[in-house]
Description:
The chain is an alpha+beta fold. The chain contains one helix and three strands. It has one helix at 61-70, and strands spanning 30-34, 39-44, 47-53. A three-stranded antiparallel β-sheet has the order 1-2-3.
Amino acid sequence: MKDDPEQLDLFEWSGVQVSATADKAEVLNGMYNERATGRFVSFVLGRRHYEIPAKGCGLNREWQIRTKRERSI
């Protein structure tokens, strides 16, 4: 039929190739330092689990410094 919808490949003409890894976004797991709020944030399978304020949190000071340096988001 003439009125049947046609599937178009939007990237066919652009020369852009999308890799298989581009579909899989990095999933956050573990504790991260959130610079915008100044909190340590726990992520489980990419979902925010809980937050701990950086000031007065009672966690090991060396761990806090290392986490701020290596795992800031």
